[in-house]
Amino acid sequence: MKDIYTTVIKKEGNWWFGWVEEVPGVNCQEASREELLETLKITLRETLEFNRQEAIKAAGNNYQEEKIAI
Fold it and tell me: pTM of the entire structure?
């Protein structure tokens, strides 16, 4: 099953703006709705991977990974 995230999108003038509710800092601007949604997906993936690498780096040695569900 894929993880599901919520986007907030709006059109203002000729531009579409969007944010991912669950992940601060994931926001994009594109000329079309379709481009915006694709860019949000790419940016979200990149942000999650970056955050994952930063967490592992901060943990140092001898860490454990544990899956949690909310």
Answer: 0.88
